[in-house]
Write a structure and sequence with these properties.
93 residues; mainly beta; 5 strands
Length: 93
């Protein structure tokens, strides 16, 4: 999705690009893994900078992890983000 093109719409005013986003070539080939794994995700926002957010890793392979973020403050145009595994930390519990 081209976030820059949509930023003029009122509902998209708070959206920010994730600078460390890491999309797989074929994201549609991934299926959700239930129940998922609770994680902390390192997200680098375009404006707000680096932040660690709690979420649930629900799709992954060796090079990519899709994390549904619990609270992103309306900054994402989706429920989650694709990241590199190096930006994902399992919650210890």
């Amino acid at each position: 999705m081209d976030v820059n093109r949509l930023r003029d719409h009122p509902y998209a005013q708070g959206w920010q690009r994730v600078l460390n986003e890491h999309w797989p070539a074929q994201p549609g080939d991934f299926e959700d893994r239930s129940p998922g794994i609770p994680v902390r995700a390192r997200v680098v926002w375009e404006t707000d900078g680096e932040e660690y957010l709690s979420g649930l890793a629900v799709r992954w392979d060796r090079d990519h992890v899709y994390v549904r973020l619990h609270q992103h403050g309306g900054r994402l145009s989706a429920a989650g983000v694709w990241l590199k595994p190096a930006d994902i930390y399992r919650n210890s519990s």
